[in-house]
Amino acid sequence: MPVKAKARMDVIIEYLEVTKDWKNTPYIKQLKGYKGIHEIRFTVSNIQYRPLGCYGPDKKSFVFLIGAKEQGDEFNPRNAPWKAAKRKKRIFEERRYIREYQ
User: Fold this and answer.
1) Structural domain of residue 88, as residue ranges?
2) Dihedral in degrees, nearest 10, Cα atoms 80, 31, 37, 35
């Protein structure tokens, strides 16, 4: 991820850390067709970044599952939502794949 995009992501994460209800923010959107998968939405240098994640497994936590971009209403990588759903399932079953964002 380019430096400017990482910096923007850091600002969004800091904002979300102090925001109680993420549903009313412009940054989080439930991904249609993938239960429990959410996208963080932001644009830097005309590139639409869409990291995918989920709430849990612990209270008040959000897990980033895969980094993605959106181009012409399609994800890059194309199978990002499928991979995110697969990783979510694995995390909730095994809980050993979680690391803190730095």
Assistant:
1) 3-94
2) -120
